[in-house]
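User: Can you fold this complex?
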Amino acid sequence: MKIMNMVNAINDALDIKLAEDKSVIVYGEDVGVEGGVFRVTEGLQQKYGVERVFDSPLAESGIVGTAIGMAVAGMRPVVEMQFCGFVYPAFNQIISHAARMRNRSRGQLETPMVIRMPYGGGINALEHHSESMEAIFGHIPGLKVVAPSTPHDAKGMLISAIESNDTILFMEPKRIYRAIKQEVADGKFTIPLGKANVLAQGKDVTIVSFGAMIREVQKAMVMAKEAGISVELIDLRSIYPIDRETIAKSVRKTGRIITVTEGPKSFGLGAEISQIAIEEAFLHLEAPPARVSGFDVIVPLPKGEHHYMQDPYKIFYEIEKIVKY
Amino acid sequence: MFNEYNPIDNKVFQIIDDKGKVINKAMMPAVSDEKLLKAYKDMLFARTADLQIVSYQRQGRIYTYPPNYGQEAISGAVGAIIGDNDWLVPAFREMGAMLAKGVTLKELFLYFMGYEDGSKFQNAKKTLPISVPIASQLLHAAGIGYEIKYNKKDEVVFAFVGDGGTSEGDFHEAVNFAGVWKVPVVFIIQNNQYGISTPTRMQTASESLAIKAVAYGVKGIKVDGNDYFAMYKAVEESVKACKNGEGPVLIEAVTYRKGAHTTSDDPTKYRTKEEEQQWESKDPLRRLKLYLEAKKLWSEKEEEKIIPQYKEEVDRQFIEAENYGPYPKEDVFKYLYAEMPDDLKEQEKEYERFLQWKASKVK
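Assistant: Here's the predicted assembly.
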């Protein structure tokens, strides 16, 4: 066991896979010499050499497109998009090829690769550095999209992602890259992708969230507890595939569901999860599913960001409303 | 000039050397002493501001900032030539050119303090806001160039990108479109040797960035971007070519980013002190100053007198920006659409209800 933050844990997962599997390579903008702008890949180039861990030209489409080529040829590239907001030039490669290659070739070809990218707001960043665009990716058939909320999960999920034969979008909540430290098991372990994690048992209301928002929900739960409201908290961990059963089971018990996400509201994850609750637990619902999300706006620059971000009060506001419904 | 400095030959266009001595008299642009002095002062002001901003950032008074330090001659030359009717399409390291267009320091401060209002230019016309997604803005420049040609206007577009940006597909598409359309765009690559930590040699196998012009069938030139006169001449000739219908032009301005990529970056991770030292003698302000001093147009004494005035002006605008006030919640919603959709109006109202509820809880 070692005390690690999420940056350390992701680095550890990459280290383990680079050591045990020669087909794994790591590249992206500034990931080699510098070890990434968040230092997630620090030390890996020194350890594994420039052929396996390297800086690419500055071109997101180029990074993902070449990774697809490597993957169909049998390698397991783990590439980095420097920020979620910079992934858009790579959309064509992700959507038109990574997500389709297996289907297009009727199973002859596959693209076992991981696209890592820090996402989310709350760090006083410049424009395009604060987005949470999981819903866009979740909408693309052929992709898997996951996001850890703890160092432990980050390590186990990334190892699973690298070992998966699918293309995985691995979204890293940069706001809590260094904010949470915990004991993480040494050596290799995996956490299956597609399984949610029930972080707290409760009876009055189910909250489904993921990534950096989990911590905000936990703060809201302190307020809820004071108000005598018992919250069941589900950390989704995997956005697609989504763990319908865990959500359904919880809502059948509590009768109320709130989703807490960072992305814009419309056509977002909240709508999808609410629909699952309706389909799976309609007769158990005591109130309409509620959403705490961003507004349908561009994430404001730092001085306005507090209007946009989900704070514990926004979450508790919805908790109070849903139990009073 | 473009024939003589065909990028195929990989020559660097220079007019003064590291000591400020003219080494290419034939190409010396005709610039009045007065204009020259103004250009130097503008660059000095930009540098003073730039260094101040980095120190404000260290004090936690401004967020992430990308310094211009060491690259002032490029924006300086464009700033001296760009007209009110010409367009400026910046990336994010073009302070001098933005100020020349009428953007105020206060506006730049607001932007880097985290107010979108910093891009709501009060005086600067035909100036696009800072563009963060690398190289994406170059296509807009080609589109603006099309409008200029379409409406037969006597205007030029100046569009900026860094060395790293030349690896993005948008760079290639933009130069190609502009070339096919023969539109009046001056593309300026600020080759400051690094895309964050990645050196230019790892961005391309080409022997220069200017040579990419050849493949797209457009004029190109590699210029010593720390040589004010060479930059001025190259920009001047590019404008001439554009106005003759011989555009676009691709300028590679060779320079050195003396500062960090942004204030979040630590260059000691990827470059040596020796390398930084080597570039010191090529500093663009130093070279122009040596030239001006030799001509008795400027002195250390005058510089010592003027810098405190500049600092005061920078401080004044900075404090104005610091006192800009809270960010109204309406501003989160109101600029997305020409007319706000009903659903978004409802989101704003619900936010108002939440704030009232919160005010009742937090006493």
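DSSP finds 13 helices and seven strands in chain B. Residues 330-361 of chain B form one domain.
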